[in-house]
Fold this sequence. Notes:
This protein is α/β, with parallel strands linked by helices. It has one domain (12-254): Undecaprenyl pyrophosphate synthetase (3-Layer(aba) Sandwich), CATH 3.40.1180. It has helices spanning 20-26, 31-51, 71-94, 110-122, 139-153, 161-166, 213-224, 242-254; strands spanning 12-16, 56-63, 98-102, 130-137, 178-181, 200-203. The protein starts with 11 loop residues before the first strand and ends with a helix.
Amino acid sequence: xIFEKQTHSIKHVAxxxxxxxxxxxxxxxxxxxxxxxxxGVVADIVEEADNLGINALTxxxxxxxxxxxxxxxxxxxxxxxxxxLKRERCRILKNNIRFKIxxxxxxxxxxxxNLISELEIESQYNTGLKLTFAFxxxxxxxITQAFNKFVRSNPGQEITEEDIAKNLMIPDLGDVDLLIxxxxxxxxxxxxxxxxxxxxFYFTETKxxxxxxxxxRNILECxxxxxxxxxxxxxxxxxxxxxxxxxxxxxxxRG
Length: 255
Ligand code: IPE
Ligand code: IPE
Ligand code: MG
């Protein structure tokens, strides 16, 4: 089976784009070279997600913890975001993509912040792919902010799961169906902690600069074959079938 547009249940894909530094070091280049090459891959994956009819693509570009990296590396990452926005603006708008940033971008240069808010406004009514970059983002911080937002407007009230979901940074993204992490590590590194409660995980050894649209498509095809039970049962072993029911009754009677 080939993974085809609109025939799948994978609506929201989240990607931890990891392995840039190691990719560069393995080639005797400084880490930032990996970021430069990695940023070139982003547009291809966005285009592929769009072609495949995925609703939302959320890409982890810079975490709250990444602030602890050397200043020069952080500056390069800011710069690459700026260049991406300039380079891809037209394509994003032409393809009816809605672009948003989630995270704290207050420390970004004013010019980059302007580019972000311009593109967010220009693309806000687009009805195609919801493309989100998590930048200056942390899952714990997002959940804490959601709590605080709720408490401020509903003092003294108990918070529900729905209240938390409604007060997340971009509530309409919904739950993540598939979380992909490149670079070989098997962890979530504070990404979308609330939204990944029932996500399928896929970890690949491929470092982000080598990640291709072909691998992306293969992962989607492979994951779309997985059975997602959400705590329930596989319909094939349906409890209500006569045989299953009779055997269960028997066990109950025997105590
Ligand atoms: C991911 O690549 C990009 C960011 C975290 C910004 P890394 O820079 O973490 O690369 P590795 O994991 O050290 O190879
Ligand atoms: C996660 O990668 C963050 C991004 C890809 C933006 P890290 O490289 O920062 O994660 P750890 O430190 O290995 O957990
Ligand atoms: Mg890393």
